[in-house]
Amino acid sequence: MKRTLMGTLAVVLAGSLGLAACVSTPMGGGGPPMPVASLRGSDTAAPDQAPVVRDQLGKKPGLQDKIARTFVGQPPMIPHATDNFDEVSLADNQCLECHGPANYVKKSAPKISDSHMTSATGRKLADADMRRYACQLCHAPQFDAKPLVDNAFVGVLPKK
Question: Is the pTM of this model over 0.70?
Fold first, then answer.
């Protein structure tokens, strides 16, 4: 028992010394250690600059064309401005005032998908399931902004 314990301690001590040597030795072996530098620059206490505010494409709902989907299962994009809408809360969702089952015909708006009105157990509901209530988690409005990164994606349009 004593021999096993002493052997284990010797291995742990040797590993610790080896790790300490790796951490304290700069890459390449010789020379002074390199100073630690921030990726943000020397003034890390400066606040980040706010991004430029961009306008949403489309203005009043119903006046612009629907945005084509580029792959099967893609949630439809929002083709109108949403910046003047109230935030979605448990008590109110302005999206459903036009796209909900009660008003979509009167408002000439696309109806939310039946998948949004099905419970987790598969039961049909009269209104949107709470799991699908926060629309902008999947449906994104469009902005007049250049892409953040280059993108060569070419979608395959669904066959009709």
Answer: no
